[in-house]
Amino acid sequence: MDLSSLFLPADLLNHFTTIKVLELCDIETKEHIIELHLEEKNELPPGYTSDQYESKGFYPFKRIQDFPIRGKALYLCIRRRVWRKKNDPNKTIKSDYSFITEGSKLTQEISDFLKGTGRDPVRYDK
User: What's the pLDDT tens digit per position in 13-43?
Assistant: First the structure.
């Protein structure tokens, strides 16, 4: 069982894989923090096919603060895939995860991140 499933929205883990969990210490404050690294699964967004699009690595990770765990700050480091159109390398698409925010108890920062995935006009290139 992936322990991150105990405190992250289930829908988030349907689309992301936990890569690593780090417990770090802030040198200045001496406070311990937890970093949870998530990577988008190698699955095309709905409505697109692998004969048209291919995964070409990842966008830079986004670091988002979530609710603390056992008194330790929790940061999610999320890497999303770059999906590139095979016959037009300048066209890329992204998955829309705005639906995860509905009915989930999330921090404002992660809620804004997930909602923002649905506002990308580039993903609607059809």
Answer: 888 999 999 999 888 888 889 999 999 999 9
Whole-prediction pTM value?
Answer: 0.75
Q: Residue 66: its pLDDT value, please?
A: 82
Q: Which amino acid is at 34?
A: I
The span from the CA of 37 to the CA of 34, in Å, is 10
DSSP E strands, 1-126: 16-25, 32-40, 53-58, 62-69, 72-79, 81-85, 88-93
Buried/exposed 40-64: b ≥16 CB within 10 Å, e otherwise: beeebeeebeeeebeeeeeeeeeeb
